Amino acid sequence: MFTGIVTAIGTVTAAVPAAGGLRLVVDSAGLGLKDVAVGDSIAVDGVCLTVVARKARSFGADVSRETLACTAGFVRGGRVNLEKALRAADRLGGHLVSGHVDGVGSVTRVKRVGANRVIAFKAPARLSKYIARKGSVTVNGVSLTVNDARGAGFMVNLIPHTLASTNLGELRAGGKVNLEVDILARYAERLKENRQD
């Protein structure tokens, strides 16, 4: 589990086809890897990946074909949001995030509002029922509050700290993002279905 509070931005230094998927190498100097071991989980742009190799300032992870099919993907040179897995004693500053991407969304508009940016997204139609005004959504691994939601579209307001601490400041209209809806919304939907049975 994760919180959606990004602690570093890394750079994909290698994305090599391997075993039907990709072997990624991520330069993650800002993350601090002293307490990370092979087998630990790190969220990379919201995707929970298992560390399969580690050096002083980088780690390797394998990405399956299935993961590539349901995410925005990874490219060499791409900057990615990083977060270590949540420990029981950690603060929950964002919301509970599983690192299992629900779908790929697209950026429909980016508007500067003073030092902030308002970004509009379009989610896959099947996910729109889980995205609500003032609810939580994860975009590229970042826990965000939804400012408005209509149909498959939703908007978020990014403050300067979020723009500086994540890769969301690099988003442009037409760009693709990894989306994970709030796990509590999913459970609420399931409870509603069970009541109707």
Explained architecture:
It is globular, with a radius of gyration of 17 Å. The longest helix is centred in the last third of the chain and has 14 residues, at 183-196. Strands 10-9-13-7-8-12-11 form a 7-stranded antiparallel β-sheet. It is mostly beta strands. It is 13% helix and 42% strand. A hairpin with a 2-residue loop joins strand 3 (41-44) and strand 4 (47-54).
Q: What's the story with the biggest beta sheet?
A: 7 strands, antiparallel
The average pLDDT score comes to 93
How much of the polypeptide forms β-strand, as a percent range? 35-45%
User: SS-based structural class?
Assistant: mainly beta
Number of strands: 13
Distance between the termini: 31 Å
Alpha-carbon Rg, integer: 17 Å
List keywords for this structure.
197 residues; mainly beta; 7-stranded antiparallel β-sheet; 6-stranded antiparallel β-barrel; 13% helix
Secondary-structure topology with pairs:
Layout lengths: L7 E11 L2 E7 L13 E4 L2 E8 L3 E6 L1 H5 L9 E6 L18 E11 L2 E7 L13 E4 L2 E4 L2 E3 L2 E6 L1 H6 L10 E6 L1 H14 L1
Antiparallel strand pairs: 1-2, 1-6, 2-5, 3-4, 3-6, 4-5, 7-8, 7-13, 8-12, 9-10, 9-13, 11-12
